[in-house]
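Incident review: delayed structure delivery

Summary: a single-chain prediction request sat in the queue longer than the usual turnaround. Root cause was a stuck worker, restarted by the on-call engineer. No data loss occurred. The affected request and its eventual output are reproduced below so the record is complete for anyone auditing the incident later.

Affected input:
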Amino acid sequence: MNAGTQTHSHSSRSAVIRSVDAARRYLGGKFTAVENVSLDFMKGQVTALVGPSGCGKTTVLRLISGLEEPTEGQILAGGKPIEGPGPDRGMIFQAYTSFPWLTALGNVEYGMNILKVPKAEARERAMQWLETFHLGDFADAYPAELSGGMKQRVAIARTLAQNPAVLLMDEPFGALDAQVRWEMQEMMIEILSREDKTVILVTHDIQEAIYLADRIVFFTSNPGRVKHDIVLEFKNGHRFARKEEMLKQRDYAEIEAQLFVWMREEIQKTG
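Output delivered after worker restart:
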């Protein structure tokens, strides 16, 4: 490793999420998406899962969310095996997931209604999150009346309004254009500076991974295994409010280049 990164070592703190030798196989065991995945995700840490297409990053996220079960090994939340989705884990997808028949406000309230949050409290929390995402003036707008970036902000607001301890993000900004994407990235940094959330992010964007994450887990090509697990030491525990501040850091370019080298190595294996 270089001066800007270090191999991740498990903290003495207990893990919020723990994967123990997890594997996911399909087609009666003929196809292995991921295997031998052992990772600890600590409270308040932002971890990016990175690797070539088809390496199983999203599969790992779905195992943590409870949408799928491991074929082998275990996934634990709070020390207990995960058995299906739960309110402690909120999932944000790349595709826009707003309900077209509900307003922005109604969409943000929706999850809280399922959790039986009192109606007045749900309304107040929904409006607070819409304001946080600069959507207060669009509370009564329907998804068809919103831009792609606004729809994704509604989806993120809906998830955060439910107050999950763990935020699972599967390429959440992948469908957005470049300008809106970095604006959303900076908005997430602003929110994470106030909210004590454990975040697990899947992304193909190396620059996005370095900007948003405290730690990067790099996966091999299929079947996906953990190849590298690094903490971004050059940040010194700091999250940069403006993306250009990070780009100017001395060790940034070296880390980005190293990730591209790893990515090329794995792509060439399948080529």
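Verification: The CA atoms of residues 1 and 258 lie 9 Å apart.
Action items: add queue-age alerting; document worker restart procedure.
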